[in-house]
Amino acid sequence: MKSLLCLLAAACLMVELLGQQNSAPANPNGFPQPMNWTADQDHQNMMDQLGIKTLRRGPSGNESAPNQANYVPSKANPFPNLPDVLTLKNGAKVTTAEIWWKQRRPEIIQDFEREVLGRIPNNVPKVKWTVVSTESATIGTDPVISKQLSGHVDNSSYPLISVDIQMTVVTPAKAVGPVPLMMMFSRGSFPTPSSGSIGAGGDPPATEQLIADGWGFALINPINIQADNGAGLTRGIIGLTNKGQPRKPDDWGALRAWAWGASSGLDYLETDKAVDAKHVGIEGVSRYGKAALVTMAFDTRFALVLVGSSGEGGAKLHRRNWGEAVENLTGSGEYHWMAGNFLKYGAADATFGSKNAGDLPVDAHELIALCAPRPTFISYGVPEKGDAKWLDHQGSYMAAVAAGPVFRLLGAKDLGIAEDYHAAKMPPVNVGLLDGELAWRQHDGGHTDGPNWKYFIAWADKFIKHNP
Fold it and tell me: For the domain that residue 397 is a member of, what is the CATH number?
């Protein structure tokens, strides 16, 4: 009998151990291990949470593929009418700045947070910034002070995940007071800034142009904040706040996480006496162009933005059927940029039926409108040089036109276009619309904002009243 009880006890222990293995075993300090899923596993988990059985396949960028993306203008606007940026959910019109700030803007933010980009949780830990090193350098012909910083996120609530943000801050050594500064999303290591390099279009690099004009710049590494893949969603700042467990449908995605990191960088810059923290801008290209636009939209402390070649998920209208589509962002390769709830708009079969881009409560023109009345510069290149048709330059221009009424309502100047967004056509390449706080310029280069920097700097100087 005794041996039988021992066997039963051993069997129970084995079952318990197996159960622990299947549910993220705890470490000696009692913290459960982070989930170690692939992007496909995490993506499937979100589909299961939402009751999605199948998603529509996103179009291909290969124009010879069976599911090639649409580039036929007559098919580009299946949902021609956008949500009215100046109409409240109750149908009332927004006629004053007060109604915009107190009612309409919060409505738009709520929709973006719930359905598109996700919410920043209330338990995000504090970031402690440390100056790791300070050195003198030269950029172009100008002496500068370069500071390497590390932003350590307090992980005492879950020590199994560490987040340390890299940022470099560079200011002119000869400045007699605080200088305006552009923060740029930049991957990789941060070598000491040096002279001699050439930027896009034969112009000096943006960093050299900024320093020569009396600006500073900061480079912040988004990958230190949050990995650019679905497998990383149980790590990084998103994983830290979730204690290594999967997201809920309205949790933030990588775009919002990168924007949070930029805001944390601005927290430091507000303490740096070399920086005019009231005139800090944000910049990025491609996926980081999306992140720059999101940063500007949600954090009103940023004074201006340069949005480079941002495409779907950035300045491009979701409702446009041209190039990259909502279905590309709901697939397992890019879904991590967005809130889990965004997957619903790529659903072919689900417990709620199906949804598409036309069901979204908001669109890109409203993301741009959230930046108003602060200076907002939308930049693109040309497909012939590598800024692919996939990005939908025209759809982004339409979004900028549709955001214009909010800039005007708040006392700023928009693109100055007479047509509404339905009929608006892009101006010729290299013809900038730079008279207002809302600006557009398509340069003749590729997938970069390099050729637009000299125009951006002059435009920004005018609006922040900076004398080089």
Answer: 3.40.50.1820
